[in-house]
Amino acid sequence: MMRERFIWTVGLLCLKAMCAGPAWSQGFPDETTLQELDPESLPEGFAEGAWEDLSVLEDVGQAGDQTASLNAACGRLPGGMPMDLNAADRERLEGMGLWSPAQVAALLVHRQRYGALDRLEELQSLPAFELEQLRRQARCFRVAGTGRAREPWYRTAFGGKHQWLWRMELGLERPAAYRDSIPAYGGDRSRQVFQYRYRHDRLQYGLAFEKDAGESWWNAARSPGAPGPDFASAHLHWRQHRRPNRRFQVLDALAGDYALRFGQGLVHWSGFGVGKGNQAVALVRSASPFQRYGGLDENRFLRGAALRAAKGSWHGSLFAARKRVDANGSDSSGYSSLRTDGYHRNPSEFSSRDALGELLYGALLQYEGLHGQLGLLYSHQRYSAPILPTERLDNGAAFRGQHIRHAALHGRWLLGNAQAFGEAALLNGRAEALLLGWQTSLHPSLDATLLWRHYDTAYHAPYSMAFAEGSTPRNETGVYLGLRWSPNHRWVLDAYLDRYRAPWLRYLVDAPSQGWETRAVLRYKPKRHAELHLRLRWERKQETESVGPLDLQAPLSGSAAASGWPLEEGLRWSDRVGVRFHLTWPMDPDWRWQCRAEGVGAREAALLQATGPRPHRPFRWGWLLFQDLRYAPLGSPFRLHVRAMLFQTADYDTRVYAYENDVLGAFSIPFFQGRGQRAYLLVRYRLSRSIDLYARLSSTHYAGQSAVGEGPDQTEGPSRHQLKTLLRLRW
After folding, report:
1. What is the DSSP string of 693-708?
2. How far apart are CA 463 and CA 472, in angstroms?
3. What are the residue ranges in the chain where pLDDT is below 70?
4. Which end of the chain has fewer CB within 10 Å, C or N?
5. In 3-state terms, what secondary structure has residue 54?
6. Is 183 in a helix, a strand, or coil?
7. Is the peptide bond before 224 cis (omega within 30 degrees of 0)?
8. Residue 638 DSSP SS3
């Protein structure tokens, strides 16, 4: 009683502070700069899990709680049917994301020794499984016979799950590009998406059409001459379970748009990938090598065909793809860079559209054992013209050329209660990337992960997504240690320490540099659907104090490159600290409440002289406070989610991020800079079992600001409003 009274008191005080507080403003990035996560960057079905649980994404690529992960995993099941534990192979089981590699291996060994399971409860006899876990996950699994009746082709082709959706996003303020009689952009102000998707246990296919704000649906001037929609995508994926008794079996056959996921992501990985976040030890990656692509990112996918076949414990894969990509700076010798934003709104952006041809092909040979896997990959990527960045010091390690050849070796292996994993890759036989890791259970309540990586400065892989401090595995060497302590089902402590260094220039650093980061997250779950967590974070890294005598625009052959590193004495240490208090509490079966208070501080060491002391400047602070309410009555077609938030930051370095729930298939993790307030309202109404309507209205207000944004996207007034609607049909 006293505990609930205390929680209600804290909540009312937070709500009072939010409702009564004034709004201030200084310049900061407008809502068009929010980080929009494409649905394909997260596991399939994650969107519905995000709707059902408010605090799903605490960090980019990081799930929030067990219920959300369970909803996401069950949403990935083909055809909506629970997974058959007697027919599922290692990839399907690990792809669910609910079992550890040791649990998957225990099931496979049990099936090999004793045959098919008779009941799901039989897993209780295996030491790797707990009764409570099996009860919680029971709806995701089933036990059936190992034989499968052959169904008619038309049931495979049309008897699964169909989904069609239309989504529209519109900024309610008119930007500068549309205030003149002749708009600066060729299309209207809305972003629109049409998607159709079919899912069956053996067959998946779909279509997607998308246009961004400012683009036209139908572009008559589309290069290389064929008119069509701004972005269109289609996929066809046939697959089947692996059956050990068969000598030869085709597992996957794809045509159209698809994505590759190999090893630990040093060469190819598209979509969801674990990294530094709230889960300190879950860093091992595992997924099916081929994924159908139904997303809207106009760059990170392949367009062509792929085939995977297995014989015994071995399987081989072949893939080939060809498409055109956007490129800048064309001349007689080549292009200076690739464009990845996907915008085609005006003549300048149209001039770089589909300018460069890309051909990619390769093969994978992999051994699959009960306790692990080992694979060898070759991939060759060729552009129709060379990429030749400007010869400057800050481009000294950038990729130059026309061919990108990768050879990689990756593997994972279980050794008792530990797992070793890693990948090694070579670029054009020279530049290398290496990642090695060890995950183990030191005690029934204590797990640990140790990871070491080394990425050459010249390493380049356009489709990679490996564990790294930066956005790509390049120009980095580091060691990561993560620990997870869970004395019981109520308490969990995750903590990690990551130390890294960069031997070449990187963003905001004009010299070789180093840094480290540590984070600790303590969670307490007093009861179901209730959680309290406290997160502490501290990052220290080197940044450039001033440009000094080094000219980054100088040619590589100039004296600046030959004279060493004049800026090594011009580096400063910068600190960024953060603290977060988050509470989720079910007020009754229909209402759930959330409250978060977060602060971020930043400071730099003052560089007085090259060899003298470097005293630290005082911390600059930013903070964020929000309240969430979710109304989800049992058995009702109506769902409601509302948020009110205040924020105040000193500058860009003290910006604060907050995940926001969105309409189905849309994700946003905006950062907030300056002073202001924000609110949004999200509503879902189910008209019938087949028809769902979503609507989301968001508003950000910057008091004292006469305009928001810059250039053609600037809007008048201190506020920015956005409306999103979605219609979904299922049958």
Report:
1. EEEEEEEEE-TT-SEE
2. 9
3. 1-81, 95, 97, 145-150, 219-228, 244-246, 272-274, 545-570, 606-615
4. N
5. coil
6. coil
7. yes
8. strand
Which residues neighbour 563 within 8 Å (Cβ) at sequence distance 6 or greater?
Answer: none
Instruction: Encode pLDDT of 115-163 as tens digits.
Output: 788 777 788 777 777 777 777 777 777 777 554 556 788 888 888 999 9
The C-alpha atoms of residue 182 and residue 207 are separated, in whole angstroms, by 33
CB atoms within 10 A of CB 719: 18
> Side chain identity at 568, as an amino acid letter?
E
**Token match 């961004």: residue?**
212
Three-state secondary-structure class, residue 95? helix
CA atoms of 607 and 514, how far apart (whole Å): 17
Which residues, in sequence order, are bridge partners of residue 727?
Answer: 166, 693
Alpha helices in 376-434 (DSSP H): none
Report the alpha-carbon distance of residue 399 to residue 457 in Å, rounded. 10
pLDDT one-digit tens code per residue, 500-545: 999 988 877 888 889 999 999 999 999 888 999 999 999 999 888 6
The Cα 648–Cα 263 span in angstroms is 42
Contact 310, 242 (CB under 8 A): yes
C-alpha to C-alpha distance for 171 and 174, rounded to whole angstroms: 7
Q: What angle do CA 278, 489, 446 make, to 5 degrees?
A: 60
Q: Which residues of 545-566 are buried (b: 16+ CB within 10 A; e: fewer)?
A: beeeebeeeeeeeeebeeeeee
**Contact at 8 Å (CB) between 501 and 286?**
no
Instruction: Quick: pLDDT tens for 38-81.
Output: 343 443 333 333 333 323 333 333 333 344 444 444 545 555 56
The first and second tokens of residue 594, run together, are 């959330």
User: What is the pTM (predicted TM-score) of this model?
Assistant: 0.83
**Cα-only R_g, the chain:** 26
- List the end-to-end C-alpha distance of the chain, in Å, as a whole number: 47
Three-state SS at 154: helix
**What does the block give as tokens for 119?**
């009941």
